[in-house]
Design goal:
heterodimer; A: mainly beta; 53% strand; B: mainly beta; 4-stranded antiparallel beta sheet
Chain lengths: 116, 114
């Protein structure tokens, strides 16, 4: 069975602070995919990033960066110099291979509040 | 492309009523999904389809039915609405195994059962 754990239920920061959202996953699949989605107060789900299990290269995209470590089954997400518009619920999700292919397992989400 | 569209956006049902949540995608994706999101929780998979005429259960299928007669449409049917089905429902679609198989989500349907 697949499982995604986001231990941080809520995080509150002041604008311009850096913030890291943690994600730990469990899967028996050797090939799998990890995602981060953002859900702003308007409710839609916005795709942020997708990583393959065979590609541990970390990535930076503007103020966003991701740290994927297979050894610890973690896929953490960092926002640098946070802004009020970053306030949202952030979901980490896992898509397995094999019979689990195509089916996303979501974490419970981390509510990020950025105060001005 | 409109992407993934869902109707209605909001709906209130009485216990025991039935309804169909509509989902349409215009990206020619063969994989489609229905998820529900309960307050303060992540999304859970209800049903999915890998192509027209093929559907399968996800994690929480009880109380729901689906059909997939075309590539574009994947309606979700609630036969006897119960308060436990109060949730936000998201439809998603993707083309798998292309190296870019990210699921694209519709805007959601907020359902309240009273």
């Amino acid at each position: 069975a697949q499982k995604v754990t986001q231990a941080q239920t809520e995080i509150s920061v002041v604008e311009k602070e850096d913030v890291t959202l943690d994600c730990v996953y469990e899967t028996r699949d050797t090939t799998y995919y990890l995602f981060w989605y953002k859900q702003p107060p308007s409710g839609e789900l916005v795709f942020l990033i997708r990583r393959n299990s065979f590609d541990e290269q970390n990535e930076i995209s503007g103020r966003y960066s991701w740290n994927f470590q297979k050894s610890t089954s973690s896929f953490n997400f960092t926002i640098t110099a946070s802004q009020v518009v970053d306030s949202a619920v952030y979901f980490c999700a896992l898509q397995g291979g094999g019979t689990s292919y195509g089916k996303l397992t979501f974490g419970q989400g981390t509510i990020l509040t950025v105060h001005p | 492309n409109a992407g993934v569209t869902q109707t209605p956006k909001f709906r209130i049902l009485k216990i025991g009523q039935s309804m169909t949540l509509q989902c349409t995608q215009d990206m020619n994706h063969n994989y489609m999904y229905w998820y529900r999101q309960d307050p303060g929780m992540g999304l859970k998979l209800i049903y999915y389809s890998v192509g027209a005429g093929i559907t399968d259960k996800g994690e929480v299928p009880n109380g729901y039915n689906v059909s997939r007669s075309t590539t574009e449409d994947f309606p979700l049917r609630l036969e006897l609405a119960a308060p436990s089905q109060t949730s936000v429902y998201f439809c998603a679609s993707t083309i798998p195994r292309t190296g870019t198989d990210t699921q694209y989500f519709g805007p959601g349907t907020r359902l309240t059962v009273l």
